[in-house]
# Entry
Amino acid sequence: MGPIWPSYFTDCFSLIFVVDSSNIAQISSSCILLLSVLSAEPLCRASVLILFNKRDIPCIMSLVEIKSLFRIDDIIASAPQSITTKEVSASSGQGLQEVLSWLESVTIK
Ligand SMILES: Nc1nc2c(ncn2[C@@H]2O[C@H](COP(=O)(O)OP(=O)(O)OP(=O)(O)O)[C@@H](O)[C@H]2O)c(=O)[nH]1
# Structure
């Protein structure tokens, strides 16, 4: 789906990027996709929420290790956008309330 995402960038003020943090094999491609999204000119002022999803699934790597592999600190430091990260589980609902609070905080009133 990545190739068609730019069709939706115009007038986009907030963005939620979901990472499957149980799938270590996909981490680097997910990171590259995120970098391409963050460098898109129409999104340069968007508020960005990165969700590390599937935290209910036992994984051989901790979230700290996954974030390090993802180079999340470097990405946040160099991106023009305001970026928030959260760990969630779409399955159990872990973190859902925080996601809703974030959405409320970035919603244009
Ligand atoms: N345990 C668990 N399962 C989840 C979670 N989120 C999604 N899933 C399940 O994971 C399966 C695949 O969903 P996704 O990863 O969203 O789908 P996808 O991105 O098309 O899948 P891939 O391209 O194969 O990675 C579905 O059965 C979902 O119900 C979660 O937080 N925890």
